[in-house]
Amino acid sequence: MKFLRRPYLYLVAALVIISIILSVTYRYVPRLAFWTSGRILVTSERLSEVPLLQPSMKPTGIAILVSQTGGIRADDEALSKLLLDRGFLVLMVDLERWRQQLNQDTGECTYFVSDLEGLAKEAQRMISLDTYMHPVMIGIGEGGVMSYASVANSPAATLAGAVALDPTVALNTKLPSCEGADFEPVAGQGYSYSYDADLPNPAVIVREKADPAPSGPPTPGYFKAQEKLAAGKPERMQMAADAAVEIANEDASADTLPIVDIPSSNGPAKYLAVFFSGDGGWRDIDKSVGDIIAKEGVHVVGVDSLRYYWSVRKPEDIAKDIGRIIKKADPTGKLPVVLLGYSFGANTVPFAWPFIPEHLQQRIAMVGLIGTEETTPFQVSVGAWLGLGGDNEVAPAVAKLPPAKVLCVYGTQEDDTACNDPSLSTVQKIQLQGDHHYDEKYDTLAAKLMEAIASRVQAQPAAQ
């Protein structure tokens, strides 16, 4: 019977290898998506099993294509093919399936964008893209109206823009979109949306005939929907795909580092602030506070942490980039410097401090940590979005900073703040009312930051 042993051992070894592969797959591949028929299926919030189509070349953009009435049809497939030929990743959203979920909402309005943002993030993390790309919304008919309304309702730095091809009169949902474009109920058809809204990102409306109600000029810092016309349907399809490329290129045209430059709007800058955002990107609290302190004489350079930390960043690399930003923003080397971070940004900045050259450390008057947490990774992840923290303890890194330079801000409802760690007993702390967003009283937060900056700069020797 000895001749049976060797095949038996081979079988056992094969089973062990298979079990290891399955366990690793279960551990590291997202459980809400899987390969099928050459496509990846992605799930996020109310969008489930959305096919992700991949181009034959390196992706140059990502599009979320929302289908027309009745679900994904031949025209939607044809438009997706045009996008794939242009290097887009394409997420194919069946409007009818999504509408069923949206119509379960209660209240006065519904918010589409969290579903779309989560879908784009999950898809790009699943295929391990090195650089995060904001999605371009695109759709035909009702899908086009949904694309436009989503961008009109989105915070800055969330969606790249929108293309609406032959939009219908209205989008038939039980509730209208929250904020964004003005809307009106249309009997039996849901809600129509004004194409005259101030938009955070560009939008293109492609159709056969011009809208008789032209758009007025945009508010500074915003966009108005641009109209493009063509008589033939094939020509309009090509035009829509090309418009998506233009939007994606504009979104990707930032400097090597994903930064937002906000010069002082109140005379010459008194201070330079390098402000690392939360893992959602430069939006909401970071953007609001940055805009406010820029009016107080601060030249703000915001770092979009969603893009910056999409790939793993070592503390020494963060320190080098801080130095590059400071040198470019203030070539004279005379302005007092402030390092600010919110949430994920506040968690990671302290780890860079030991690698910042001593002459720059001396110029940095304050390190302001807003909403810092107990642990952190050095890469934006699904776990980070869900508040699951990371492997690196934040308080010991903060404790290595000069205590007199540190300001730690936290909310009364923040249970996982590093500010209250015993090792940070000597640093200044400010407690504000509320949770991680401090009841959205950003003026109060900005005022506290300006007070702390001024007091530290006064105590700091002038730059030589």
Produce a short descriptive summary.
The protein has helices at residues 5-28, 74-85, 95-102, 113-126, 142-152, 233-251, 284-294, 305-308, 315-329, 344-352, 358-363, 382-385, 394-399, 442-458; strands at residues 35-36, 39-44, 47-53, 61-66, 88-93, 136-140, 161-165, 183-186, 190-193, 203-207, 226-229, 259-262, 271-276, 298-303, 337-342, 364-370, 375-376, 392-393, 406-411, 428-432. It has 464 residues and is an alpha/beta fold. The model is unreliable at 1-38 and 383-388 (pLDDT under 50).
Write structural notes for this entry.
With 464 residues, the protein is α/β, with parallel strands linked by helices. It has helices spanning 5-28, 74-85, 95-102, 113-126, 142-152, 233-251, 284-294, 305-308, 315-329, 344-352, 358-363, 382-385, 394-399, 442-458; strands at residues 35-36, 39-44, 47-53, 61-66, 88-93, 136-140, 161-165, 183-186, 190-193, 203-207, 226-229, 259-262, 271-276, 298-303, 337-342, 364-370, 375-376, 392-393, 406-411, 428-432. A 9-stranded mixed beta sheet has the order 1-2-3-5-4-6-7-10-11. α2 links the parallel β4 (61-66) and β5. α2 (74-85) crosses α6. The radius of gyration is 25 Å and the shape is elongated. Residues 1-38 and 383-388 have low confidence and may be disordered.
